[in-house]
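re the bet — no i am not wrong, look at it urself. input seq straight from the record:
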Amino acid sequence: MFYNVENLFDTADDPSTADDEFTPRGKKHWTKAKYTDKLLKIAEVIDSVGDKELPCIVGLAEVENRWVLEDLTQKTALADGNYGIVHQDSPDRRGIDVALLYRKDCFELLEADFLRLSFPEDTTIRTRDILYASGVLDSDTLHFFVCHFPSMIGGEKQSEWRRERAASTVRHKVDSLLAVQSRAGIVIMGDLNGKANTPAQKVLGTKSSDKKPRCKDLYNTGYYLLKKNYGSYRYKGNWQTIDHLILSGALLDGHSVWKADRRLTVFSASFLLEEDKTYFGYKPCPTYRGPRYVGGYSDHLPIYIDLKK
């Protein structure tokens, strides 16, 4: 499962990041009550996606620090999951990071690393690290990446090179894994700030998961959504999926202990949505709409995929 939770900040000011607006005296008047409500809502979503049991692996984007992750996993309904946390503060200016939660009863963490993105052409760019973790899921080693690629600030085309750089960093690590084990089970999840047919996706080398899989190739399980009028994010009335679950062919062709669904699912329960009064239809109900507190869940919908034996 992957979920961009939209600004999960605590209420304390971190002098090293631009998080001032998410404090009680900041522009958003971010209080302990609002923070607690946000935690409970995120936990409700994760619990609902899990259906009869909590998800084994959860990737998150836009979390401020380890403290909020500990509150999320220990002070909500997620406490029953006995989740471990993989997280590290990143150089992002606002202080938002990616993280991985894993249930200790079903996943044994072997390794964790954080891949730093470098932009020598513009040293003012400070963005999220790429999280890499490997571990054993029922006797089979799986590799996970959690990403939040650079935003479209400055224009989509003008900023695409930054996302291509992020994609190249991921691809380099993937190639090193496949060089050691050609049938490695690899899952890349995250908010990549672009659709499944962008230049950054070409750098990753992704293909439609509807095609016949090969072990060494990567397949975007949300590719089919390019032709659908729904997704995980809605912008000016248009649904799109900028959140992705990308799998190595081994997880699709039966060469792994685990076999994944060919297509991701967007979790779009009615409690996550609100009426779109401008463009009609429905859209994700956010926590904030500009400076105004709405009290919703997130401006993104979560995505997930099932792994089965």
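see?? Helices lie at 32-50, 66-74, 156-180, 199-204. told u. also Residues 52 and 269 are 16 Å apart (CA to CA). so pay up
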